[in-house]
Amino acid sequence: MTTVTRLCVTRHGETDWNNSGILQGWTDVPLNDRGREQSHALAQALSGAGFTQVCSSPLCRCLETAEIVAADLGLPAPRASDGLKERHFGDVQGMPKAELLVTHPGLHQEILRRNPACDFAGGETMDAFAHRVMAALIQIAAEAPEERTLIITHGWVMDVITREVRAQPRAAILDMKRRNGESLWLEALRTGGFREGPGPLRSV
């Protein structure tokens, strides 16, 4: 009997910049104490799910989350993938949203709506971002067939994946925002795509 390749895509733990409403993007912001607590709680919630590996964005808020979970679950050190990094927000990266409201009110509103078609001057386009995210996901699944992989990544990355598995346009605005530590469970298809799957599933 063939075992299904499963991925659990999870948003990193909390940072101080999350609380302060600052656009993080590629800025390397560490977890705060609550984020570390969330990471330990995530490991406990996922214990027994049968993961064989953990993959992560190389940004420290993800990598630290992944390292905590991997250690708590007795798994090897996480593998980092640049394709799992957050979207690059260009000139407004590192800017508080309160400041953005004054300097770029239109962009501020679109960011609050999490509009993927936002034009981030000096940053990544919607298509370039979506392409690298899905390429990374496909590669991870291909390198671990019939296994269960935990992936620690970012909110806008999870938006891209959610649209893809729900067959929505890349520019679709979702009616949701993934919380810190929230997961999306996927099953890899023979066609190279993905679908939402049940989870957490216990090891068999």
UniProtKB/TrEMBL annotation:
Cross-referenced InterPro entries: His_Pase_superF_clade-1, His_PPase_superfam, PG/BPGM_mutase_AS, PGM_Phosphatase
Molecular function (Gene Ontology), one example: phosphatase activity
Active site: H12, E86
Residues annotated for substrate binding in this entry: R11, H12, G13, E14, T15, D16, W17, N18, R61, K97, R113, R114
Pfam family, one: His_Phos_1
Database matches in Gene3D superfamilies: Phosphoglycerate mutase-like (3.40.50.1240)
Gene Ontology cellular component terms for the protein in this record: cytoplasm
Keyword Ligase listed: no
Isomerase recorded as keyword: yes
Alphabetized UniProt keyword annotations: Glycolysis, Isomerase
PANTHER family per UniProt: BROAD-SPECIFICITY PHOSPHATASE YOR283W-RELATED, HISTIDINE PHOSPHATASE FAMILY PROTEIN-RELATED
Name of the protein: Histidine phosphatase family protein
Organism per entry: Thiorhodococcus minor
